[in-house]
Amino acid sequence: MSAWDDDTEQPVYADESIAAQVGMPLVEFWHLAGRDWQRVDVPLGEVEREVEDVGWYATGDPVQAMIGLLHGSSDVLVSRPEGRWRYGLVYVPASPVVVEDLTELRTAIDAVCTARRRTFRWCRYCRQPTPPEYRHEGDICMGCAESVLGVVH
Length: 153
Known about the structure:
With 153 residues, this protein is of the alpha+beta class.
């Protein structure tokens, strides 16, 4: 998911540019939306509702929420991320909703995160929260399926 700075091996966060695009100070953005948003490349044709000219960002580990910024607008799309394996894992927005009143951004993001976390299962071996896209089956993550069960993905 993340964009990495090749020189430092640290994730590159887009918080400042997002805050500037929606027209608010960085600290206010953090209070409303949280921190550590990273740019996500959504493959063409993968979005449920076709929205042109949107820059998508995701946050959380595992990924818990996505926001989309319409170029030339301060409106924000908030969406639950859906992980799909397409020559590697990509995250696509599932059922994005427009948040026109930015004071409602926190509520919208919290609702998306709550819904997303309900899809997590804790791996029976490593006891880590595992989203659907990283589950081998039921309550076994892909990593433990490989190391414990000998599965090759």
